[in-house]
Fold each of these.
Amino acid sequence: MHFIQPEKHTRRAFLRRAGQLAFTGAALPTALNLAAMADAAAFDATDYKALVCVFLNGGNDYANTVINYDNASYDQYSAIRGGGAGRTAGGIALAQADLTPTLLSPTVPLAGGKQYAMHPAMTGLAGLFNTGAAAVQLNVGPLVAPITRQQYQSSNRTLYPIPPKLFSHNDQQSVWQSSQAEGATTGWGGHIGDLAMSSNTSRVLTCISVTGNTVFLSGDSALSYQVSTGGAVRINALNGNVYNSAAVRGAMTQLALQTRTHVLENEYN
């Protein structure tokens, strides 16, 4: 797991990051890229907030991420996962003693003496939790309704509905991002972006992806930007001298960043 050190959100820092932004898909018009640059240049908000989604396409062993720590719950965890005697490691169970450094201390203790710990490698995240800067949301998933094993084995999907395309890895990736099987075109993040756009001064920068094209960030109106692993998808005309003329390149850059006084010109630019 990689952690990104938060940085003060200044206009200069935003402009530096904005230089890495590009629209997904080469067919989108250059004018929209220029509009994004203009929005970035005009950015002056002091209350910037972002919802960040780190999506694990390969899946995650939840029970070895947030782990039962109190004795009664740990014993159940250890029995299921083949742990060793005396609450030691075994099978795919971690030793209880190894979890002590990442023990979570909620502000309000859980009922019944229930305790959890993070995986021993997640000391940073455990520290954030214990300072009130992170939270754990339990019982999250695409399950339609509570269901027993007997109900699952029933063929009555009207009475006992289940998530679509179970055991299909690609479909489940899509379900988690959009509530629909593979082929979905919009996702949770994009729909949140649709709702948030009306409150944003720079609407074209509502949804930004750093991992390529993703259904999670696709909305009905919100457009998704992406940064490739090799860097930004640049506007060629602004990446070097145009017609071997630095003056022309400078003029195009000025046009891209210029704020117009006329409302229609400013919106088009």
Amino acid sequence: MSSSHNLSSVETLLIANRERGRRTTRAISERIKVLKRIKFYIDTLDAGGILRRYFVMNGFDGALAVMGIIVGSYMTRALNPRFIVGASIGASIAMAVSGFVGAFITERAERLREIKELERSLFTSLDKSVLKQAVNMITLLAAVIDAIAPLLFALISITPFVLSMWSLLPVEI
């Protein structure tokens, strides 16, 4: 009786694992479909260049802002890692919010203007078109990239000070 009970527990476990594997495979498959669709939209609007530029320009802004905080701390002989990390995170969050909103508003207005011009030329509405879907996705993607870049570059820049807070790296004036 005990061995049949164990067998059914093992079978139950195998079935549960198999189902979990199917769900994971479905989830991965859905993510791949989303990524392929995003890639299609990027190609459709030829948006790769602008997305890369947003990433580099705003990443550079994030790194430079942190550099300013570090240099200012050094010049005042207040090279406190907690202050530098806190101020840098605060500045990078502000840049992320500003970047997201600015890029979203700007890209949306510019892309919708292009759609309207095309609609006038074609004498038809493009509201339900793939082009309009691509515009919506690229607008959001540009805003997200614009927001993430300064955060990422700032986090890279403050890594030595985070390590210093954990006593893994000395910071000296």
Amino acid sequence: MVSTPEHSIKVLDQEWVKSWKKKLRGSNPNNGGTSIIFRVSDHIRATDPNAYEPKVVSIGPYHHNKPHLKPMDQVKLLYFERILQRNKEITLDKYLQLIDGLKTQSQLSYSGDIKLGEREFSDMLLLDGCFIVELLLSHYFRSHEQQRENLILNNMTTLSLVEFDMLLLENQLPFVVLKGLLDLVVGDKISLIEIASKFFKGLIKGLEPLPKSDGSSSKTNKFYHLLHLFHACFIGKPIEEVIVADFPTESMLMTPCASDLMNVDVKFKQKTDRSFSWNISYEHGIIEIFPARLNSNSNSFYRNLITFEQYFFRNIRSRVMAYVMLMSCLIDSGKDLDLLRRERIVAYTLDYNEATLFFRKLCKDSIMDYDKSYLSQLQDLSMNVWELYDTKWIRYKAKLKHGYFRNPINSIYLITSAVLFIVLTILQTVYTVLSYYRSSK
């Protein structure tokens, strides 16, 4: 074997090494674990591309400079001027220094290539961050401040569009940037968690803002961005505190629909306990469930929450996805939708057929780990409901009630058919006996 002399080994070109390290970092969508804001993957986006696109405002680099979002740039400048007026002791230089100090950390927060130069990226952080902070402050103080022209808060349509744009997975700024800007303006008088959770409270009935004290908690202070914060408010309880039961959760996919459950005397009730709004419960024949409000923004809203869970909580729990899957089981037809609407579990402004198929479409092409999902938290619900539903006489009662006795004409038809069948059976027996005696003679 020929050995290679040590003196023949060449020193590698360090620029070449650096270029390969850069390529390898780029091949990892998580950039070695530092990324907290992601582009939606192509296979997820393909199911509904518009669900992940902002309608009126771009936040962050992914949708920056898109033509249909440019009109909001003037509003961002206006809001930046208002930020400067809020605390005149803080000069423009202080804001620029803050952004410059957070620039590198923020760049690493985004996955994939950022097609912005360093100066343009810094300008984007400054304008988008100040826009959000001013919007949140204006909303928080609007009952106390003197009324002044506000192009967003005074227009409910625009406000609604901006709110939902701020909850898109690709339309986020790092939480640390927003917190830094807010601290410059108001110091430690108000927490970002407090004003942001109050801002989003109007989107969902029953949305529970996190307590003010959570702003100093090491556990709840580690939010990545506003969507992460909203998710924490939306599920009603920190995800880490949920204990997963050892339960075959695939059986939840076989949950009977709402009308079949009603036929076996299961009742539905809107959940009003806001302390843990997603804790669906079953007791004494009553299922308490968090209400769903379906409108033109709901599809994008749920899809972004589900995608966020799949990126960040893949190994923990997908609670929004589990809720969606349960609702897709309960709503199998328009009859189920009508039932849940009467019980105030579902309200909708969508087309009737669209509302009926809403949750089923959301489940299409979605992936979740059932053993680690929130479905495992529905152990008592599933076991008790199936124990009731699988009882033979109750199932038979439900079948008759569902198929025949609901309609009086069907009831009459069933009874008449039964009587006619008995009469024909008797006549056939008599005819057979008579035929036998005649043949004997």
